[in-house]
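User: Assemble these into one structure.

Assistant: Restating your components, then the assembled model:
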Amino acid sequence: MRSSGVDRQLLLVAAMLMLYGLVILYSAGQTDVVTQAKGVWYHQFIWLGVGLCAAWVTFKTSLRLLEWGAPALYGFSLLLLIAVLVVGTGVGTAESSKSWLAIGSHRIGQPAELAKLAAVLMLARYLSGLKEPPRSLRDLVIPCAIIGVPFLLVMKQPDLGSAIVFIGILFSMLFWSGVRPRLLFMLASPGISLLLAFSNYAWGAWMILCFALLMVWRPYVWESVVVYLANIVMGAVAMPAWKHLKPYQQNRLLTFLNPEVDPRAAGYHAIQSKVAIGSGGWFGTGFTQGPQKRLAFLPEQHTDFVFSVVGEELGFIGVLVALSLFLGLFLILLRIARRASDPFSSLVVFGIIGLWFTHVFENVGMTVNIMPITGIPLPFFSYGGSFFVICCLCLGLAARVSWDSRMSGYAEF
Amino acid sequence: MNGFDAYQLGRRGTTASWVLGGAFLILIGAFFRTQVLQHDKYALQAQTNRLRAIPIEPPRGEIVDRNGLLIAENAPGFSVKLLAPKADSLRAVLQRLSTIVPLDSFAIEESLRRFRGAPYQPVVVLGDADFAAVSRLEEHRAMLPGLIIQSEPKRLYPQGRAVAHLVGYVSEVTESDLSTNRFPNATLGSLVGKAGLEREYDSVLRGRAGVRYAEVNARGRLVREDVGSASLPAVAGRQIRTTIDLPLQRYIDSIWPAGVRGAMIAMTPSGEIRALYSAPTYDPNVFVGGIDAANWRLLNTDSARPMLNRAISGRYPPASPFKLAIGAMALRRGLINFDTHMPVPCTGVYRLGNRGFKCWKREGHGSLDLTGAVAKSCDVYFYQLGQRLGLEAIIQDGVLMGFRDRTGIDLPSELSPQFPANLDYFNRLYRGAGNWSAPATTLNFSIGQGENDQTLISMIQFYASLAGNGEEPIPYIVHPTGATRHSTGLSETQLAGMRRALIAVVEQGTAAASRHRDLLVAGKTGTAQNSHGKDHGWFIGFAPADHPQLVVGGIMEFAEHGTIVAPYVVNVLRRYILGPAEPSEPQIRVLTDEAVRGDSAPRPVQLPDSVPAARPTP
């Protein structure tokens, strides 16, 4: 194997995903009605150029430099998140939220996207510095704080979709650092309790299950008490918290459960997306020919619902190809993470898997209504500058880790 | 850090692979379910999302006469429709459209009203646009978003006014029609028959509307007008062949005196209607493509009521033609035969108690048998015959002979005649048995006056039974609607005697002036009393009298006398039986010759308040 080469598999799959994304973005602009999506694929070329440059720079950057700079980057991203709360602007479907940083009328980016990568680096730096993987809830306080601060700042915007991504990053990286699954379960249980609190029976059953599991696993007594109390508290605050949510957030969650509740308003996106995908059938209606997209029934077809265009125009086969590419990408990244030369690199790559996987599952899932509509972009497909550049940075990182491991890895080849 | 050796990373990597694989399987499963298993459902939803159905009106079935001549046909026409997302944009387009083709504010408001009723349907703006208007609209198509121009067959009645009351007219179905389901399978915008044969046979004639699809975008704007797939062709209505003789119908229209109200029916003794005419008439073509407000007002406020079909919906006192019914009642009950004379010979007046009832002929007819009394229409003879029958028998037999029932002709809006069901009717009408005089009422009924109003079709039906075998046929234009229910109950010889009496009317009786050597006509004149003005004239006859082929009856309002009507009827009979060459114009005689004056209604010398005068009718 050529020692100076980049990871060819990674390069190939990433290039295919970018090409696929550009082609679909081109189609998204081909409508009979003038929509925002017209001509965005052309702009995306600019971002592609910027992204490739960024990827090249990170590929050439030592992981050690990043490890050293992680706290500064993390702090900077937190500052941006605070700034965006003060001077941020909304856009598109999330008009009322403050997620964009703008100078004058020019939106220059979404700090939340940078914060995701910064959080991955910061968490990786912290976890790789430990002697042992975290063994108790007390050991998880600092990792939770590292993720929790940007999580809360993003929730404050409010941007539920990005907030969920932080949760995905936290759990995937804790898992990869060697935290036992039962500890992850105990960490997650209050959240599950929160979701189940809307049904008395489900919540009751959940509390019994928790009790039984804690009896079997026998962690520290104080751990059991804390976990159990947290579950009870979450169940109790669920309804007040629900009332605290903005009506559009409530609607999004409600229409996820039943889109027909309000087919004209909140359920509109969910229904139209599913109709477009369902009408695609096995082979789709043909590239650029999707009637639902052409006639603007499909909303946000260049950003949040870009995958519906794949479903409508290229059918189940097109979906299968796209999902296979994503799965392929994740398996390649997994291989890179396993063979990384050091824990920090390995954790960073796995954090990227967690980041992207949450995006893909949430975004693709919401187009077929198996996930609530939260409005987060699909990597390499959705139009948008900051996220695309961040994705390129991640690719550059992964390629560097792969390159490093071939030069001085302790894994066998 | 511990836990990053190859073995542990391998284990965690395997777990991570499983989780990733499972998650992707869930996604793929969800897409498989949506795109493959539920494809049909969503494909249909996608279609209904973007397609708006535009109905294609089917060509209506033709209506032809018995020889295949066209009574109603279809001509090529255009309809202009608009597909709009919102009422505001529709109003804007209508405003622009009104600068290109004439469209008044009333029509604009009407279009907007229709749009609010069915917002996703294309709105009909012009139901019947001519080629010039359509080409002007095509020129300006760019500024008229949502414009749909459809070539649509439009109804045409080549004979227009001559057939109006027979064929009726079509117009767009109303919302109340739809809510009462008067026209099954009709949808908003369908053209349905509103009167005459168009109404009666609407389900046969209408056919089934087709549908084609126009593509709209998410804001409801028209994108493509014709989407070939999934359109349903219209099914044309079926032709109906009638018993009508169109040349005869036109002949009646051509000879009918201008400005005279009335009706005429020509029917075979078996019940086939050959012509049915009512005057004044209207042009059914004005309803095609939507009648404008001015025309509609004109038709509905005209005091002559042109929309009233006087042949089946006008009720008149039957007057002297009813004397044949009195004669038939007496014959079937065996009270008299054709040679029977009445005890009191006619001296011009008949005394009942202290009252005198006049015969129309002041000098009297002397002693007559039934044949003579029919020929001369002697009132005094029938006064006595009526008394011999008694009022109860007259009413009983009248009901049996069908003078109380609709004939059942296959036209809508036939009115039933007004005839008492029994004697109680008078007690109710005059609030007590003591308030009316049975003998005076009997005399009135004997000569076809009193509480007895018949339609022309009902009288024609009775005369057809005299011309035929005594059974009263169900009149029909396409199909008989039922079986014969009424009969005169006369024997063959009695019927022959009746026919002889009716021949005598024309040969030497009241209608002698209308006699023609070339055709032996049997018939009866009549003059219906009318308190509103001049009397109405009747004539019902059939020919050839020895072997009747056609029964023709006419009534003319304010004609003063049946002899005015007789020549028209006789000419119609001659035209039908002898052919078109022979008669030219009907001869109308001036009403000065006293001898020509036939019968006239009786005029009681003194009429107590309690005795009702014969009631006039429309």
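The two ends of chain B are 114 Å apart (CA to CA).
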